[in-house]
């Protein structure tokens, strides 16, 4: 059965259930009837097919699936799901419109607080945020049975794009004020949108040659197609937001110059965290050891997988090892499979239960053939006389007492070291902010990791300078970065009023 047929079958089954509910709905569906509606499965490419291509894995709901999933919502008056959303999307309101088949109205409600719904619907960890607070999931005593809020958000965003009916939000008359946004990731784009709505002249400065930040260089095509990001960026451009690429703030221009010489009334820094962390073990200098940041950037932004067509080489391997247990590690491991690795191992020093990666991403990796080596960590990387990786020395671990994060701490097992073969090691242990901006901005306070220090309104130690996203939080999620962008924009709008 190919994946297109699977998608059609799921939507047909949903249509039959919707028809059977029609009479009950006319009389009013109660909580018991809504709780009995099954969770709608997300159609996906079959694993044996998708591991050989870069196409998106999740295929999205059909209209019937979306309407049936929406019928599961209890419409809680206290809206606990909204409290779990970092940008405060009016979730029950937009889901109610999907129930009525008013998809355009549903999307307009989402866009009141979120102008990147197609992105958020794909990559945000809803199971840890809005869906974690869902009354239905709690009533059924299973987080997996919460209303699929993210999938519904994705559906209406995709529906609008496919219909060609995208209209930018209304923008207030020009204020004559100028705002500079450094970085075009989720925090920067969100701040730019909220500033532009108020009528301010907004310019986004991006160091790379493509707009989108981590959404284009970090998240793989099979999880977030770049055309989706571009469509969201086009929507901001339609609002009047200007974009300038190949602009390295701190080198091309300092923050002081933007304010004092270029006439910007406020600056928002959303430059992300692009300085990769390494293990600090022997052998990290060998050819074939890469940060996940470099590996994914070469693949996603520079299309290294297009052999013979890309302007940058992609590192091919037979046995790849990925160190880490987060979403970036899953992205790197699944990318390595698609680039032809015969085996891909994820080395993680805790167990699956402690992994910070989304459960869905771990499941997809397992389905595609990624091998997980839990309670293991590298001691050294082994190389040959030509300077290439040939293996690793691993050590076994056991779980001890919980640490500050609540996860049980890994404890090394003495004398448990052993060697394994591999020809590529991808280190996915997170990133710190690049220190360029703090070094070129006298008076801009940062902590010992280089993260900019801000107050509750995202204001930095410099007047008229605000910051948010990974450059403040360290590596975080798209939606958390967006939340900080919104908060900063609200403060800047108040400043410029």
CATH class of the largest domain, named Alpha Beta
Biggest β-sheet description: 5 strands, parallel
What integer value in Å does the Rg equal?
23 Å
Report the mean per-residue pLDDT as an integer. 92
Percentage of residues assigned to helices? 25-40%
Can you characterise this structure?
This protein is an alpha/beta fold. The chain has three domains: 3-163, Orthogonal Bundle (Fumarate Reductase Iron-sulfur Protein, Chain B, domain 2); 178-274 and 432-496, FAD/NAD(P)-binding domain (3-Layer(bba) Sandwich), CATH 3.50.50; 278-429, FAD/NAD(P)-binding domain (3-Layer(bba) Sandwich), CATH 3.50.50. The protein is 37% helix and 15% strand. The protein contains 20 helices and 16 strands. The protein has helices at 3-27, 31-36, 47-50, 63-70, 80-83, 91-99, 103-110, 117-123, 135-139, 149-163, 186-197, 214-217, 226-238, 255-260, 292-300, 327-338, 359-368, 436-439, 470-473, 478-496; strands spanning 178-182, 201-205, 242-244, 266-269, 275-276, 289-291, 319-323, 343-348, 371-374, 376-383, 389-402, 408-412, 418-421, 424-427, 431-432, 465-467. The strands form four sheets. The chain has a five-stranded parallel β-sheet with strand order 3-2-1-4-16. The chain has a five-stranded parallel β-sheet with strand order 6-14-7-8-9. Strand 7 (319-323), helix 16 and strand 8 (343-348) form a beta-alpha-beta unit. The longest helix has 25 residues, at 3-27. The mean pLDDT is 92.
